[in-house]
Design brief:
Blueprint (H helix, E strand, L loop, with lengths): L9 E6 L2 H4 L12 H4 L2 H4 L2 H6 L1 H17 L4 H12 L5 E6 L5 H5 L4 E3 L2 E8 L9 E2 L18 E5 L8 H12 L3 E5 L11 H7 L3 E6 L12 E4 L2 H8 L2
Parallel strand pairs: 1-2, 1-7, 2-3, 7-8, 8-9
Antiparallel strand pairs: 4-5, 4-6
Helix pairs in contact: 6-10
Bound molecules: 2'-O-acetyl adenosine-5-diphosphoribose.
């Protein structure tokens, strides 16, 4: 089965951790998921970053080396190839919940990182003015301080309880408004706001397709087509 992308003028793709599973990275939910091993309340919430930043760094800082070692897989590459071969009049937006940067490394260009990028560190004080910077350190044994204002530094990611960055939210909103093809790939569909994007796409009249290892639970009726399997196996064929 192959999707005919030439028929669509406004394509929006949403990806989740399942797209990077083929690169050896853990998903968040499921048997070996990040939240199965680390209590989400304890490690994943914005309040933890405020009250016990060492916990946030222990988990997310510890994942940095794994991200650096990972390579884009056939799913990332198929998405980059698709974008490269679209006509100039076709709009394409790749919205990812992933913080691993693998889409960009595969060659994708129009990417919105909804949940930030774990390779970057920023100041926890938004008024400080320090630009987010590339940081290979795990900081899992010592919470780092901002070189400008001495506040606590933090990973440049969106934690539970925090809003999506305004520029990312705005770009997605605009793309969904005119969307005629919406694909969600490798995401459990339980985390908002990404989980609601398909409803906006459906409202805009888009064809809505879900590609995932397993069915969404509970199913979201806004998806009209479902392809089950590994993204790294399905996408090279679906997107050929
Ligand atoms: P989840 O871990 O919730 O879901 C990953 C989905 O990928 C599951 O439904 C799996 O069945 C599926 N999957 C696993 N391997 C796959 C493969 N090889 N091919 C295709 N699908 C596969 O991850 P997300 O939906 O991305 O946020 O989670 C959303 C957000 O929740 C994350 O961005 C993260 C998390 O808390 C932050 O940490 C900020």
């Amino acid at each position: 089965m192959r999707l005919d992308f030439t028929r669509y003028g406004n394509i929006v793709i949403l990806t989740g951790a399942g797209v990077s599973a083929g690169s050896g990275l853990q998903t968040y939910r499921g048997p070996d998921g990040v939240w199965e091993k680390h209590n989400v309340e304890e490690y994943g919430h914005a309040q933890t970053m405020i009250e016990r930043p060492e916990k946030t760094w222990q988990l997310f800082g510890g994942l940095r080396a794994k991200l650096r070692a990972a390579e884009p897989n056939a799913a990332h590459l198929a998405l980059a190839r698709l974008e490269a071969r679209l006509r100039p009049d076709q709009k394409f937006l790749l919205v990812t919940q992933n913080v691993d940067g693998l889409h960009q490394r595969a060659g994708s260009r129009n990417v919105v990182e909804l949940h930030g990028n774990l390779s970057l560190t920023r100041c926890s004080d938004d008024s400080c003015g320090l630009e987010p910077f590339l940081d290979e350190e795990a900081h899992d044994d010592h919470v780092p301080a901002c070189p400008r204002c001495s506040s606590v530094l933090r990973p440049h990611i969106v934690l539970f309880g925090e809003p999506i960055p305004l520029d990312a939210a705005w770009a997605v909103k605009l793309a969904l408004r005119d969307c005629d093809l919406f694909l969600a790939i490798g995401t459990s569909g339980v985390v908002s706001p990404a989980a609601n994007f398909v409803r906006s796409a459906e409202y805009a009249g888009a064809r809505t397709v879900y590609v995932n290892l397993e069915p969404m639970s509970p199913p979201n009726p806004a998806f009209k087509e479902v392809f089950l399997g590994k993204a790294e196996e399905l996408l090279p064929e679906l997107l050929a």
